[in-house]
Here is the input.
Amino acid sequence: MAEGGFVQDQTSDNVLGSQSLDILMLECPICLEQLRYPKSLPCLHSFCQECLASYIINESSGKMASASSFSCPVCRRDTEPLNQSEDKQRWAEQFPTNNLAVEMIQHLQNTSMLIMCKPCEKKGKMNIPAKFWCEQTKYYFCESCKVGHHDLFHDDCEPEHITQENKSATIRRKMSATGCGKHKEKLEYYCEDHQILGCHKCIIVDHRKCEAVTSADDFRDRIQTTKIEDLLGELRKCVNSMEILIKDVEEQLQFITEDQITALKSLTDLRTKVNERFDVLQKELTDKLTASFKEEKENLDISRRKCERLMFAMQKTLTSSQDAGLKEDTVGTISLFQRGQAEVESCKGLIQELEKSSRSTSLRHEYNPDILTLDTKTSLTLGEILVHQQQRKLPNTAALSERQLKMTRKINIKVPTDEKDCILTGVVLLSGGRIVVGDDANHKVKLFTENGDFKCDIEISEALCDLCRVDDNTVAVTLVTDKSIYTVNVTDVTLTVLSKIKIQNVTENCLGVTYNNNTFVVGTLTSLYSVPQNGGEATMLHKIESKCLHLASDQRNGRVFASIHTSDPDAVAVTRLSDGTHIDVLKVGVVKGTTGIDVDREGNVYVCGRASHNVIQMSGDGTNVRQLLTSSDEIKRLRAISVLGDKVVITLSKNSDQRNFVQLFQLN
Here is the structure.
């Protein structure tokens, strides 16, 4: 390859792609700005010298003063400076400058980057710009030398005109041809023992005892056949994994943000009722809540930044692999291969790290409702902030459609004070493994842990049906013949009735219930109604052909899904309410006698079939329906279902021999 390398004639689309790739490759992964004084680590990732120095200082803070290495900000490979005894503030300066990046930056900034005529240089004329490139002779020519020298002896080839836009490719090839930072020689050999490129001097001085030393071209040919494609496939999978984890971190941040808002509102409401003398107490609790939120937010932000940094690096590697000139660029091909290998290993390691450290956190404000009673003897207090944490399983990085339900536990819901076998008409799964069930046979609402520990129950004087989640501290239950809704406060160990909401101007039995945008939606034998959160007249939303035992809400977009209990062929099984309209999203078919229904945080809808003895999962528009459980799983006559994260709890109807149990499942 001659000086300056081979210059391709590019179309305008290729030019734009090359310029975009140049800009992408010249971006610092830390500050996301154009590289300034770029420094390259042994793993071939480059950073601004200032950014790298700050990163090294921040990472080493809190570690032993004798620490002799740091991890790459992108692939997290352990990296040692050339001189470990030097102050850590100067470690970044020790790493080699990325001269290719410097040249490319100069080109992009329109500095004086000229390619000179080779024949003129030999004549002593050093400043004559070249305008043509000859592939056959591997020389650059000015216009005069092309006519007077090249065309006289090479009339069988036509030199290509050099354009301003394709100089960046020329610069890359020129830098690759003389890329040895130690000897300024052409990189021609590859040592497989040390996995490093070198010039002929490097091989003689540093690698003459190595067993596996080959030419760079031969090694490139070997890895290009299969290993590059395999590596790119792994990189794509790793990018998908990082996208899933980033989305999961963002959702966790959203959840604890909502928890914080709810807790702060609870504090504000209570503060209004107990007057201004509680300012000090309120400040203490607010500070604790804010500190707990800040701590968890910082932890989640750190996890997200790690995932994003690695994902962006892998995306850049994938983008680089699409460069048409890479096939002819030996050093670039090997460098991409090495960088990609490091990033794949880092991705796998980061996933394992997050699997060990991931936890779910809920923030709650709790107080004794008795302090609101005027003649109470309860000490006046603003309650406390509860921070509940538990080990949490990361979302499966495989497609959700590949995940299956696996039973993890059966919990006996019948307690010694029950006079009858249970009829579990409703269930809600809350954070911290709290399970709230409605037992119509014994007119009770009960609280259990996911480990099967019974905590408490409260008696309800009337027949009850569905339960729904209002927030992480509150559930609501419908009273069938009383035509009302009870709201119940849920702690880790207690249940307390907060309010009774009378449903006005509804004459039918009230069955299904869900909470959506500060409003309850209630199902009856023939209709769906909207009920104000604080009570009042109900508004009919939609007429239905059969009774609605259960409803569910998608909190992301306010959609409400109603389960219509029927087995008639082609009758509506599930209808969706949104913005004052309704859409029938599922008809009787794979699922019959629909009962329980719920929506997960990703918008997937879960529906129980009492007559078909199955549980299905479908998208919010009724497409992509698949069965999660069938009668072959020994689950029959299902009634209610509740989904939280990757956990699912199901109850069975009164005619089942498992009527006294709830079934816990894990979505894997």
